[in-house]
Design brief:
The longest helix is centred in the middle third of the chain and has 116 residues. This protein has a domain of about 80 residues. It has 5 helices and no strands. About 10% of the residues are buried. Helix 4 runs antiparallel to helix 5. The chain is mainly α.
Length: about 180
């Protein structure tokens, strides 16, 4: 320990130690400040993370609620669709029946109109040509009622029975066909 006896060396060592102590304390202070600042950043980051997790949790809860609502709406819509499909089928069947009835009623109307033209042309059911008979028979067959077709055939071929009776029977059969068809 030579420097203890030498005052110049002691002074230099003292100054060196003083500078080193100051640098040490300044470094420790700087490191402490950096540590404190980093700790504050970490706390802020942790708080933001917690806020984001809360937002994610509430968003997940909201999306779950929304999903459940949408599932309920989907079930409601599917139920309504099923009911509408059943109604559609019922209406389609009713329409099909209506079209069929309308077609048959139109066939009877066409026959009766033709019968009226024949009666007007021939002043009754006499002197009907084969072509007129064939057309009338085809119109009777268009009704789809074999009994009506038989009655028409009978009325046009039974000339020994009065025209009024034959006509009345054809008209009654046509009316019955329309009534039976509309049920």
């Amino acid at each position: 320990m030579e420097f203890v006896n030498d005052p110049v060396k002691s002074k230099r060592i003292f100054i060196l130690m003083l500078v080193l102590t100051i640098v040490f304390f300044l470094g420790a202070g700087a490191l402490g400040y950096l540590y404190y600042h980093q700790r504050q950043l970490y706390k802020t980051l942790a708080q933001e993370k917690e806020n984001l997790e809360n937002q994610l949790s509430s968003a997940t809860s909201s999306s779950t609620d929304l999903t459940n609502q949408l599932k309920d709406q989907l079930k409601t819509c599917q139920t309504a669709k099923t009911k509408l499909d059943a109604e559609k089928k019922t209406l389609a069947d009713a329409n099909k029946t209506y079209v069929s009835q309308n077609t048959t009623a139109t066939a009877y109307a066409n026959f009766l109109k033709y019968l009226g033209e024949i009666i007007d042309l021939h002043d009754g059911l006499q002197n009907i040509s084969q072509a007129e008979y064939d057309r009338g028979y085809a119109l009777a067959q268009a009704t789809g009622n074999s009994q009506f077709t038989s009655t028409v055939n009978w009325a046009w071929n039974q000339t020994d029975i009065s025209q009024a009776k034959r006509l009345a029977r054809v008209i009654v059969e046509a009316a019955n066909g329309v009534i039976n068809n509309s049920k």
